[in-house]
Amino acid sequence: MTLNIYNTLTRRREPFETLEEGRVRMYVCGPTVYADAHIGHAMSAIVFDMIRRYLEFAGYEVTYVTNFTDVDDKIIIRAQETGQDPFEMAQYFTDKYLTHLSDLNIKPADTYPRVTSEITNIIRVIEDLGEADYAYSVDGSVYFRVDRDDDYGKLSRRRQEDAIAGTRVAGEEGKENEADFALWKGAKQGEPSWESPWGPGRPGWHIECSVMCLHHLGEMIDIHGGGNDLIFPHHENEIAQSESLTGKPFARYWVHNGMLQLSGEKMSKSIGNLVTIDSFLRRYSADALRVLIFSGHYRKPVSYSDESIEAAVRSTARLRGGLRPPTGNVAVGEEASSLREVTESARGGFCQAMDDDFNTSAALSHLFELVRAINSARAAGISGPFFQAAQDTLRELAGVLGLSLTEPGGPEGDVLAAKPFIDLLVSVRTAMREQKQWAMADMVRDGLAAHSVQLEDTPNGTTWRIEDAR
Ligand SMILES: [Zn+2]
Ligand SMILES: [Zn+2]
């Protein structure tokens, strides 16, 4: 079995080969810290956490670096709007995001570089690009000369004319070419700035990731990751900067996750259709979010809705059910050996699925298969080493997906505990309605509503949901 990964650069699935045997250098673009992170950010972090965990499970030593963009137009604008100090605001949201990462059971990175700590390195790289004629300065700003880079556009496969339409920025008059992008932005009145050979200013967005990769991982890395909304211009420009500087291929595999969608559109602050990580975790567990994301494929969009998350909550509970203790004391026999067989085939199937460009939904289906086998073995009174081994395997493979399988507290746990009783009340009410006992049926409905359980009568029967507390 070999691991195959889809590489955006070649648009193909390729066998995974590292630059250095047994070692993976991995860089993932992190957030711009100017607002509460939403579960779309969480999806990217969770996807690359899963990839990292699987690589480690497969025996690689992984060096994982992810950055914080802590100075940027968005931060400056938000700070001006709210009258805050931009650095304090960025620090606040950085700390908060780090807490979220741990709440979401995401393994800590080896390094979390921040733009504001890399300014000296960034200036040096821009100077080097200028010396090699890849960069030029105009009125205190510095731009990358796209025309000088022959293979510009190879990642996004955009023609330069299309690229121009995507990059026209006000206040960048004097560029040689509309497609050129800022490496250094001359300071405007009232903006945070650093001294540089071109006067006071701050770095452009794209240069920071090139420099952080170079500084923390070296000239060439194995995996560069991020959301597929970053392919152009961000990652295209990273490639242009890094490869023009070093003359070497920058990242071996470009890996991009799909977007989390709410009501059919990408979750984003500008559209306003977002669920913050805070509000998500008040209601649901990190495991449920992982199961939702891993039920699809990481490169495809994931649709977030009350229905899809409730389904994920139930699936998560089903996985957890596999860890309930045995009830009997039969250690051997037909049931025990068939449990052993399923344990082995589930492990094999799980790895095969993950080797196929991290096919997590197929991997999950092998975990469900194992849970079913454990449950029927338990019902048959099986305990002992095979039962133990099956549960250990479930725990281990779930752990590769970052699932803790611990009992959720809070509303998710409450809903799961209450579900059989709500179902019972709903069917009692249905029976009352059939006997035209309307007053009593309404009493049940109102009583449930008082506990935030909303009923809906449809031609196919009555459904219920927990009233949205967002
Ligand atoms: Zn980046
Ligand atoms: Zn190039």
UniProtKB/TrEMBL annotation:
<comment type="similarity">
    <text>Belongs to the class-I aminoacyl-tRNA synthetase family.</text>
</comment>
<keyword id="KW-0030">Aminoacyl-tRNA synthetase</keyword>
<feature type="short sequence motif" description="'HIGH' region">
    <location>
        <begin position="31"/>
        <end position="41"/>
    </location>
</feature>
<feature type="binding site">
    <location>
        <position position="269"/>
    </location>
    <ligand>
        <name>ATP</name>
    </ligand>
</feature>
<dbReference type="GO" id="GO:0004817">
    <property type="term" value="F:cysteine-tRNA ligase activity"/>
</dbReference>
<dbReference type="Pfam" id="PF09190">
    <property type="entry name" value="DALR_2"/>
</dbReference>
<dbReference type="Pfam" id="PF01406">
    <property type="entry name" value="tRNA-synt_1e"/>
</dbReference>
<dbReference type="GO" id="GO:0006423">
    <property type="term" value="P:cysteinyl-tRNA aminoacylation"/>
</dbReference>
<dbReference type="InterPro" id="IPR015803">
    <property type="entry name" value="Cys-tRNA-ligase"/>
</dbReference>
<dbReference type="InterPro" id="IPR032678">
    <property type="entry name" value="tRNA-synt_1_cat_dom"/>
</dbReference>
<keyword id="KW-0963">Cytoplasm</keyword>
<keyword id="KW-0547">Nucleotide-binding</keyword>
<dbReference type="GO" id="GO:0005829">
    <property type="term" value="C:cytosol"/>
</dbReference>
<dbReference type="GO" id="GO:0008270">
    <property type="term" value="F:zinc ion binding"/>
</dbReference>
<feature type="binding site">
    <location>
        <position position="29"/>
    </location>
    <ligand>
        <name>Zn(2+)</name>
    </ligand>
</feature>
<dbReference type="InterPro" id="IPR024909">
    <property type="entry name" value="Cys-tRNA/MSH_ligase"/>
</dbReference>
<keyword id="KW-0479">Metal-binding</keyword>
<feature type="binding site">
    <location>
        <position position="209"/>
    </location>
    <ligand>
        <name>Zn(2+)</name>
    </ligand>
</feature>
<keyword id="KW-0067">ATP-binding</keyword>
<protein>
    <recommendedName>
        <fullName>Cysteine--tRNA ligase</fullName>
        <ecNumber>6.1.1.16</ecNumber>
    </recommendedName>
</protein>
<dbReference type="InterPro" id="IPR009080">
    <property type="entry name" value="tRNAsynth_Ia_anticodon-bd"/>
</dbReference>
<keyword id="KW-0648">Protein biosynthesis</keyword>
<comment type="subunit">
    <text>Monomer.</text>
</comment>
<dbReference type="GO" id="GO:0005524">
    <property type="term" value="F:ATP binding"/>
</dbReference>
<dbReference type="InterPro" id="IPR015273">
    <property type="entry name" value="Cys-tRNA-synt_Ia_DALR"/>
</dbReference>
<keyword id="KW-0436">Ligase</keyword>
<feature type="domain" description="Cysteinyl-tRNA synthetase class Ia DALR">
    <location>
        <begin position="349"/>
        <end position="412"/>
    </location>
</feature>
<feature type="binding site">
    <location>
        <position position="234"/>
    </location>
    <ligand>
        <name>Zn(2+)</name>
    </ligand>
</feature>
<dbReference type="InterPro" id="IPR014729">
    <property type="entry name" value="Rossmann-like_a/b/a_fold"/>
</dbReference>
<feature type="short sequence motif" description="'KMSKS' region">
    <location>
        <begin position="266"/>
        <end position="270"/>
    </location>
</feature>
<keyword id="KW-0862">Zinc</keyword>
<feature type="binding site">
    <location>
        <position position="238"/>
    </location>
    <ligand>
        <name>Zn(2+)</name>
    </ligand>
</feature>
